[in-house]
Amino acid sequence: MKQSASPAAPPAPVPARPRASRGTVVVVLAGLMLAAVTIASIGLGARDISPLEIVRILLHPGAEGYNGDVLWTERIPRTLLGLTVGAALGASGLIMQALTMNPLAEPGVLGVQQGAAVFVVLGILFLDTSGVQGYFWMALTGSAVTAVLVFLIGTRTNAGSSTIGLVLAGVAVAAVMSSLITLLVVRDEAVYAHLRFWSVGQLTGRGQFLGQAIPFALTGLLLALPLGRTLNLLSLGDETARGLGVRVERARLAGAAVAVLLCAAATAAVGPVAFVGLVAGHAARMLVGTDHRWSLPLSMVCGAVLLVGADTAGRLVIDHGEVQVSVMTAFVGTPFFVWLARRRDLVRM
Amino acid sequence: MPQTHVQRADRARSLGQASQDTAAELKAATAARLRAAHRAGRRRARLVTCVLVLVLLALLVASVLLGGVRRIPAGDILPAAFGMRTGLADYVIFRIRMPRALAALLAGALFGLSGALYQRLVRNPLATPDMIGISAGAGAGATTVLLFAPAVPFGTSLAGIGGAFVLVAAVLALSRRGGGVDTYRLVLVGIGLSAVCTAYVNYLFTVAGQHGIAQVMRWLVGSVNDATWEGVSTLAGALAVCGLCTALLGRSLGSMALGDQLALGLGTRVGAARIATLLVGAAAAALATSVTGPIGFVSLISGPIAVRLVGTDRSVALAVPIGAVIVLGADVLAQHGPVISPVPTGVLTALLGAPYFVWLILRRRQGATP
Questions:
Q1: Membrane-spanning residues where (chain A) (predicted)?
Q2: Which of A224-228, A299-303, B4-8, B66-70 has the lowest mean pLDDT?
Q3: Is residue A11 part of a domain?
Q4: For chain B, N or C: smaller number of CB within 10 Å?
Q5: Could B344 and A159 be called an inter-chain contact, meaning their C-beta atoms sit closer than 8 Å?
Q6: Please, which pLDDT band fits residue A348 given cuts at 50, 70 and 90?
Q7: What is the DSSP-derived secondary structure letter of residue B181?
Q8: Does residue A315 sit within a domain?
Q9: Does the beta-carbon distance from A327 to B199 stay under 8 Å?
Q10: How far does CA B207 lie from the centroid of its chain?
Q11: Residue numbers of the domain that contains A289
Q12: Which of B188, B221, B350 sits opposite A164 (nearest CB)?
């Protein structure tokens, strides 16, 4: 972020709001996309259910029948969970990118989700934790510890630029964390297989966690919404923000806390899913520009669309069984990551 | 006045003579000092190599002997190690422990070699096969063949090499920008592409049948648990071939360290030598990965340790025994360490290597070469 050299000409306090017409277009478009993936996620799956039948089941919630069961106990909760988790990851990614001023920042890339996973495993093994509620508090602790660790290492590296330092720190911490997970569970084959399954983030069979996950995710999302203005001010640089009356450290801490909360809620519910925050954050900024009051809500929508879309696609790409959503997001997110890494301004020596 | 002039000229001449003498002496002294340093370096390298070989032998013995050999008569152990006994001794020592120990040793040597080659070539300690995604590519290729076409002879090794070459080509192509390859971009692109390969192997894990799960698990966390003699012979062959190629490339590597212009002046075909080095390094990492799975951070830490012990010139050769010591030591610890054992070998190398990696990115001065 550039700061104005001359004190006499301070930079514009906040980036200009997008023109009203464009804002409307983006909002309508986002709503349409959201509706489209929701309908697709409810309507498409391994079991073919005709659209008419689906409408009939939706209109008569009490009706009996196997198709009704599939819809009400599996697909609808799964879709709602996907929307919630996707929104949480999207917002978390955008806040992390804004706070670190690092285009590659994201809870998965920085290893924060792996840290959350380690603590969940610790909880399962030693504290008899079960259910999303229990997972959540462990995941929250793990995310916070890991985020602090990665940030401390990442800002002190000598790796050319802090962008790369943070990513390298994330890779190293993630490696340690996943080794710790293996170390903790390797002696029990059954637990190992189960956790391996959990540590590949997916939505399969997590529908029942919806009720437990919603409160945490919604709290995080509601806390995130008013952050837009603060993030705008912080993005002007510490000096300017301080001059404009922002308590920089406190604002940073609040933003980071919300990002960690969102990441923990998502990870506790479905396991680590990387790249959603990365892609959602950038997509939102591409659509409405750098004003975080607009891009933050939009990053939630983008995250939800991406996660539910990837999950639905994962159900359809192979005939029997399905591809986990985290595998799908990796295939979507990596080209994006590589494209970002190739940007000229990213690698500064 | 003329007298003084002559005297002055005389004095100047004698002074010139003296300075020429001192220059010659200085030159000779410097040359002698350089020769002495070279000799000292060689002596030191020899000493370090001897120590490493002794450590390796001790680790080999420990790896074969540790853990319940009481039921095997002491006199049977040595013959059994060479396949000259039958029954329990043969089974435990020759079929399980020897291949495991040798696979760890050879794979470590290959990881060390490939890491040192890449670090030397790119002149950055971060540019190792596991950081830029080569091991992940090899793992993805090898796992695919192992699950879907297990009967193909040498299938996993060949698919591992194939995956590694595809990945190295992709990483190089994608990180090229404005005519040059930036190390950090190389590492970032590699991190991205390894994420895809890891996701793919993760996916295979969930579709693999009961039998396949153990196999895929090995590619998620490297391990020498199920090493066989076939694996050992693959690794030994790989080490022989890659070692030979490295020896042939040694001179070019040395001159390329002086910079491309000087290397060209010295008659090195820089482009060809660079591609050859990349391929040898990728093949070494791929073959080791195809047998043991990705044993992380070994290629990263072997090179810098070698540099610290004997200096840059001899580091590539020394990284080979250092890698072997690291993996064999980690494997002995993984099998018999107190509290933690048994764990996959890759867990230990990651737990030891990642903090070192953090230290490396924290401490490295800009522009420092490995």
A1: 25-46, 80-99, 111-127, 134-154, 166-186, 207-227, 253-284, 296-317, 323-341
A2: B4-8
A3: no
A4: N
A5: no
A6: very low
A7: E
A8: yes
A9: yes
A10: 33
A11: 50-340
A12: B188
| A:129-168 residues touching chain B, CB 8 A cutoff | 153, 156-161, 164-165, 167-168
Return the exposure string of A262-271: e unless at least 16 CB atoms fall within 10 Å of the residue's CB, then b. Answer: bbbbbbbbbb
CA A103 from centroid of its chain's CA atoms:
15
Task: Give which of A167, A197, A342 to mutate to test B binding, by max B Cβ within 10 Å.
Answer: A342
Q: For residue B152, give the amino acid letter.
A: V
CA distances from B172 to B46, B129, B161 (A): 36, 12, 16
% of chain A residues with pLDDT over 70: 85
R_g over Cα of chain A: 21
pTM of the model: 0.81
The alpha-carbon gap from A5 to the nearest alpha carbon of chain B, in Å, equals: 28
Please check whether residue A276 lies inside any domain of the structure.
yes
Do the chains contact at A197 and B206, CB–CB below 8 Å? yes
Question: pLDDT value at position B19?
Answer: 66
Locate the chain B residue with the closest alpha carbon to A338: B189
Residue B259, CA distances (Å) to A164, B123, B254, B308 in order: 25, 11, 10, 22
Q: Tokens 């890759």 sit at which residue?
A: B346
- pLDDT, tens digit (0-9, with 9 covering 90-100), for B175-227: 877 666 677 788 888 888 988 898 888 888 777 777 777 777 777 777 887 78
Number of domains in chain A: 1
**In angstroms, rounded to a whole number, what is the distance separating the alpha carbons of residues B255 and B261?**
10
Domain presence at residue A136: yes
Average per-residue pLDDT for chain A:
79
Do B251 and B293 contact (CB within 8 A), yes or no? Answer: no
Give yes or no for a contact between A3 and A236, defined as CB atoms under 8 angstroms apart. yes
- A-B Cβ pairs (cutoff 8 Å, strict): 137
